[in-house]
Amino acid sequence: MSGKLLLNRRRLLGLGAASASTLLLAGCDQFDDFVGQGDNSVRGYLEKANDLTYRVQRLLQGPNALAREYTDADIRQGMRPNGSTDPQGDDYLTLKANKFADYKLKITGLVNKELSFSLADLKSMTSRTQITRHDCVEGWSCIAKWTGPQLGPILDQAGIKAEAKYCLYHCYDTMDGGLSGQVPYYETSDLLDAHHPQTILAYGMNGGDLPVANGAPIRVRIERALGYKQPKYVHTIELVSGFAEVGGGKGGYWEDNGYDWYGGI
Amino acid sequence: MASITEGGAAEAEKPAKHKGPLIYRQSIFTRVTHWVWAICLFFLLLSGLNIFDAHPTLYIGQQSSFADLQTGDQHLDNAWLDIGAVNTDNGPRGQTTILGHSFDTTGIGLGVSGDPANPDFRGFPASATIPSYYDLATARVIHFFFAWILVATLLVWLVASVFNRHIAGIPPTPRDLKHLPRDILNHLRLRFEHGRQYNVLQKLAYSAVFFILFPLIILTGITMSPGVNTVAPWLLDVFGGRQTARSIHFLTMSAFVLFFIIHIIMVVLAGPFNELRQMITGRYRAGADVPFDPSKGDKP
C-alpha cells in the first residue's frame, strides 16, 4: 500500500522534473509578459528594488564620498564616444561652425536669479581636473581626464529656491523617440549629485577641448553614476521640483526607455 | 530523465528492509531559504545573461579596451573573452574568442542564434535570457530585485544558522578530510552515506558555495556599481578593477551553474524522493548504520 503510494509520489516528482526541464528548454519567454516595459504591475513592483538601492547608497555615501580618481598613466586610450556623437540640429550646427563662441549655458527654473554663461565665462572660472572612470550601463568602462568648473558654486550663485529638488539638464542632441520621432536628450539629478565636489561642467577632456563626439561644448560629469546620467551638449540647467511633466516623465531619455533613474549601480 | 529517476528510486528501495531512522535534518530556515535561493539564482542567471548581452566582452583591469572608432587603432587590448559574430562565405557565424583562441559557436547559439533567415546577433540566445528578447533595462530591474532578495535571505540564513548551529556542520573538520579519499571512492561507486551529518564532499561543496561563491558573486556585483565605489573603493583594489570584477562575476556565475548541475545529478543518484522530502519537510531517511535515537527526534 505505502509502496504504491511512494511510487505514485515518485512518478509525480519525475513528471515535475520533466515538465520543469521542458519549460526551461522551451525558452524563457513565458516571463516576457510580466516584466516587459509599459504599464505592468509586476514590473512596477520589481522596480521598487531600485528605490531601495538609491536610498541605501545615498545613506552610506553621505554628500561628499568621492569617486576614485586615477593617474595620467591610467589613460590608456581615447575616450570612447557613445550615444549621440554628432548632433545635427540647426541651432547646434550654427554654434559648432563658430567654435561655440556664441554658446550660452543658462541656469533657469526655481532660482532666485536666472544666469547665463558663455564658454569663455566658464573657462575663466576656477576649474577642477579629475581623471575618472566612465562606466556605461552596457558594462564597459573607460578612463579619461575631465576639466571644468564645479556645478555647485554656480547653482549657489543663482540661488536655489527651497522647492527645487532636481536639476533638469537640457541637451542639444536628439535621440530616437519611437512614435514621437526625434526627441531631445535630457537628464535629471538630485541636488546632492548636483552639489557633489566632482560634479563639473566639463569643457576639457584629456588635456584638450572637449571633442564634439564627447559632448562639446559642455558635458556634465556626475561621477557617482553611470554614463547615461552624464548628459552631453548641455545648454540649459533648469531647477525643478519634479519631472513628471517632462518628456516621458521618468527623468531622462533612457529612464523613459525603462532604465532606472538613480543610475548608480 | 524518467529512466534516471527510476534507476535512483530502485537504488533507494534496496535497503528498505533494514532502513535507518527518519531523522529531522533540515530546519525551516534552511528549507525556506534554499528554495528562495533557487528561485533567485534562476532569475539572476537568466537576467544576468541578458545584461551580459549588452556588451558580450570581458576584460582584465579597470577599463575596457576598444578600437578607435575613426582610425581603428587599438592602444590597449585587455579583453579575454568575447562572444560575437563574423561574416563568412556561409553567412554570419557565431564566434567565441577565449584568450585569443576563436571557436565557431553557432551550434550552441553563442554569437548568432534564432531563425537562420533572420538571426539574432547577441551573446547568449533568447532561450537563455529573461526577458527572452534583448532588453538591458528590464533585465537590470529583474537582476537587482532578485539580488536584494538573495542578500536578504542569506542574512536570514546566516543568523538562523549560527543560532541553530547548522553552519557549524558545513566546514569539513580535519577528521572529515581524513575520510576524503574513502568518500571519493564511495561516490565513484555510487555508494552514498546517509548519515546525520553531511559527508565530506558535501561539506566541501557547500563550503565552496557559502564561503566562496556567494560572497564572491555579491562583492564583485556591487564592485561594478559606481555608487558603491565611492563608499568602498577598496573593493576595486581587492578585485583588481571594475572590469576584472565583471569577469570574476561571470566566472563565479559559471561555477554556480556547474554546482547546480552536480547538485541535481547527486540528488537524482542519491535518491530524489528522500532528498526532496528532506528539503520540503526537513525529514531524511538515514542509512541503516545510523542508530535510532528518539532523543534527537528520530522517527522509525
Ends of chain B: how far apart?
31 Å
**Number of H- or I-type helical stretches of chain B:** 10
- Spans where pLDDT lies below 50 across 5 or more residues of chain A: 1-7
Radius of gyration of chain A: 24 Å
Largest sheet of chain A: 5 strands, mixed
Mean pLDDT of chain B: 92
Structural summary, described in words:
The complex is a heterodimer of chains A (265) and B (300). With 265 residues, chain A is an alpha+beta fold. Helices cover 30% and strands 24% of the residues of chain A. Chain A has 9 helices and 11 strands. Chain A has helices spanning 2-25, 32-35, 41-46, 48-61, 90-97, 119-124, 151-158, 191-195, 253-256, and strands spanning 104-109, 115-118, 128-135, 141-148, 166-176, 182-190, 200-202, 204-205, 208-209, 219-221, 234-240. In chain A, the strands form 3 sheets. Chain A has a 5-stranded mixed β-sheet with strand order 2-1-11-5-6. Chain A has a 4-stranded antiparallel β-sheet with strand order 3-4-8-9, with no helix packed on it. Chain B is of the alpha+beta class. In chain B, strand 6 (111-113) and strand 7 form a beta hairpin. In chain B, helix 2 packs antiparallel against helix 3 (136-163). Chain B starts with a helix and ends in a 15-residue tail after the last strand. Classes of the chains: A alpha+beta (265), B alpha+beta (300). At the A-B interface, helix 1, helix 4 and strand 4 of A face helix 1, helix 2, helix 3, helix 7 and helix 9 of B.
Summarize the structure.
The complex is a heterodimer of chains A (about 260) and B (about 300). Chain A is α+β, with helices and mostly antiparallel strands and about 260 residues long.
